[in-house]
Amino acid sequence: MSTGRARSLAVGIGLGVLMAGIAAASAAYRDADCVRCHRSQVEAMAKGGGKHVDVGCTSCHDGHPPEVRKPYPVCTGCHEPHSADPSAADCAACHRAHAPKRVAYAVGVPSAACGACHQDALAQLGASTTKHGRLSCGVCHRAEHGATMGCGDCHGRLHPEAIMARFAGCADCHHTAHDLNHWPAKP
Ligand code: HEC
Ligand code: HEC
Ligand code: HEC
Ligand code: HEC
Ligand code: HEC
Ligand code: HEC
Ligand code: HEC
Ligand code: HEC
To answer: If you measure from the C-alpha of residue 174 to the centroid of ligand 8, how many angstroms do you get, rounded to a whole number?
Structure first.
């Protein structure tokens, strides 16, 4: 399971020997062998692999070319999706197997996939009749999970400074980004 010992095994083995050995021995590779030919993946895992380090290479890569083409695991073989929404099942939209703790995504990531864990935000934005209601989550929470852009990043200094100086912020008049210009009735 551990890849820690793997590096020492690379010493003294020439590339020609390695390549000649692929066809014959590939089916029987063990975790300690991977570093000989896939140093960058082994190093990436050691650095950012999180709990996947303990899972081990061969638990996910069952078999090897040429016997097995594309020996890739299905994430849902070991994990439940975050919700029943189909977009939440596209794990690769947010996760990379060799760096599972870093959640990064494209601007157009489906809002419903975020909504798996942020139901309130999804519902509020979905109900908004303002132009914010048409924007997907990734437009304002760009690239990395947890990132949030400020109002000014998109709107600049729209209103006169002299007026703005008298208010604590945009929220005084526009409420929140998800529930823009909508002031719920007080209970
Ligand atoms: C002797 C060198 C060697 C060793 C050892 C080795 N590999 Fe590979 N691996 C290769 C080569 C060469 C390819 C490209 C093969 C191809 O595309 O036909 C490859 C391809 C792969 C692929 C991509 C397959 C695909 O079709 O997309 C994976 C995944 C992989 N190796 C995982 C591993 C794992 C995990 C280990 C250790 C258990 C390992 N390899 C050990 C040489 C090696
Ligand atoms: C062979 C089983 C297996 C497969 C396949 C697998 N995982 Fe995991 N994963 C685990 C285990 C075991 C843990 C640790 C769980 C724990 O301790 O709670 C884990 C942890 C994680 C974590 C938390 C990481 C951390 O360090 O906290 C994420 C995120 C994750 N997996 C995503 C994925 C994704 C995305 C895929 C598909 C590319 C995937 N996993 C495939 C077994 C697997
Ligand atoms: C939790 C499951 C998991 C573990 C553990 C894991 N991998 Fe992978 N690996 C994947 C997945 C999924 C892909 C396909 C990546 C993609 O689609 O971008 C992949 C891709 C690869 C590839 C193809 C080239 C590339 O980078 O896309 C190689 C080689 C590889 N892994 C080697 C390893 C080695 C060596 C280890 C152990 C140090 C390892 N993997 C551990 C799931 C895993
Ligand atoms: C829209 C982005 C997104 C998608 C798509 C996504 N995830 Fe996640 N996932 C996250 C975020 C964000 C976290 C971290 C949550 C936290 O900080 O607690 C996470 C955490 C995890 C964890 C570790 C915490 C836990 O819940 O056990 C696992 C395992 C995981 N995801 C697996 C998956 C799998 C498997 C899929 C595909 C079926 C998937 N994720 C799809 C964003 C996503
Ligand atoms: C697996 C569940 C999960 C998914 C999927 C998920 N999040 Fe989160 N998110 C969390 C949790 C848990 C927190 C609070 C803990 C934290 O700060 O990490 C959080 C916090 C946040 C925060 C606030 C960070 C802060 O510092 O206050 C933002 C913004 C956010 N998520 C946006 C998103 C966006 C956008 C998506 C879709 C790309 C998404 N999340 C997908 C679980 C998730
Ligand atoms: C990622 C960019 C982005 C961020 C961040 C952002 N907005 Fe917007 N906002 C837009 C876009 C795009 C529109 C629609 C512009 C258009 O179509 O003319 C808009 C429209 C608006 C409107 C007009 C609504 C309507 O329906 O007419 C107001 C008011 C507004 N934003 C206020 C805010 C406030 C306050 C914040 C911070 C809490 C904020 N915005 C953050 C992109 C952003
Ligand atoms: C128009 C830009 C914009 C869009 C679109 C947007 N957000 Fe936000 N979000 C913000 C801003 C700005 C904040 C900081 C609080 C505020 O001013 O409303 C925030 C705060 C958050 C927070 C932390 C505080 C809270 O309210 O829970 C989470 C989580 C979050 N957003 C998730 C999401 C999700 C999920 C989506 C998609 C359904 C989304 N956001 C869409 C701009 C946006
Ligand atoms: C004193 C109250 C007040 C404050 C504070 C305020 N606004 Fe406004 N804002 C307004 C009013 C009133 C309108 C015009 C609304 C309309 O026409 O429906 C407006 C309109 C807008 C529009 C739409 C402009 C257009 O061309 O359609 C945007 C975007 C906007 N504000 C962003 C912001 C941002 C960003 C901040 C914080 C820097 C902010 N506002 C602070 C009162 C305010």
So the answer is: 7
Q: Which two tokens stand for residue 151?
A: 């109002």
Structure tokens at 25: 């021995």
The pLDDT-based confidence of 10 (bands split at 50, 70, 90) is: very low
Selected residue with higher pLDDT from 71 and 9: 71
pTM (2 d.p.)? 0.93
Residue 117 · residue 137 · CB < 8 Å? no
Query: From ligand 6's centre to the CA of 137, what distance in Å?
Result: 13
142 CB under 6 A from ligand 8?
no
Write down the domain spans for the chain. Answer: 6-73, 86-174
User: What's the chain's average pLDDT?
Assistant: 88
Distance CA 139, CA 157 (A): 20
Q: Taken in order 13, 16, 22, 24, is the CA torsion positive or negative? A: negative
